Amino acid sequence: MSRLGDVYENRVTGERAVVLRGDEDGEGRPVLVHLAVRPHGAVAGEHVHPAIRERFRVVSGELGLRLDGRESTLTAGQEAVAEPGMPHDWWNAGTETADVLVELSPPDPRFEQMIATLFGLANAGRTNAKGMPDPLQLALIGREFGDVIRFTRPPAWAQKLAFAVLGAVGRARGKRGVYPKYLHPHGRAVPDPAVLAAAGLSPRASGSE
């Protein structure tokens, strides 16, 4: 379960997430994360969350966003929402680090496990330059975490067929959908006071407000 100050970092995609309100201390309220995306950084690929609502609010920098096929650029103070089942993709659209508040509701520890798995594989050199695992590994992750994330390519029917075949091959080669060694934060950090203020949280109350 995530908690205030947990850090997850993907050195391949340029994402660094610091938890401001986790599912451990949020009392059922949305998880809130400070996402810092370096220049040229981007999420691994367009995807949907079947049951999770994701809200983005830019604190500084520029965030390119594609929601349901429509592209826009968000700057400081602007926000957008990806409703459950809505295809979305995002990237740093500027030349400076993009600092973004990301709110996830309802809170789901499975989302954290998925992030930890994808980031862990990337940091271990087991993905391509965009942070995507090889097809065998992706098939296993797709089957394991299909309740929290689904990539939009290839089409859903093709994924279902491919995951069954490729997943079996992947398991035979020692790959897994979950690796215990990756299921932990990459560190701890004191949240940025300016970002906490933008979120309406105080340094002492951010985990219990």
Molecular structure report:
It is a single chain. The chain is of the alpha+beta class and about 210 residues long. About 25% of the residues lie in helices and about 30% in strands. The protein has four helices and twelve strands. Helix 2 (about 135-145) crosses helix 3. The protein is globular and about 50 Å long.
SSE blueprint:
Blueprint: E1 6-10, E2 15-21, E3 31-37, E4 47-48, E5 53-60, E6 63-67, E7 70-74, E8 79-82, E9 88-92, E10 98-105, H1 109-123, H2 135-144, E11 150-151, H3 156-172, E12 187-188, H4 193-198
Antiparallel strand pairs: 1-2, 1-12, 2-3, 3-10, 4-11, 5-8, 5-10, 6-7, 6-9
List the main descriptive attributes of the protein structure presented here:
4 helices; seven-stranded antiparallel β-sheet; Jelly Rolls; single chain; alpha+beta; 12 strands; disordered C terminus
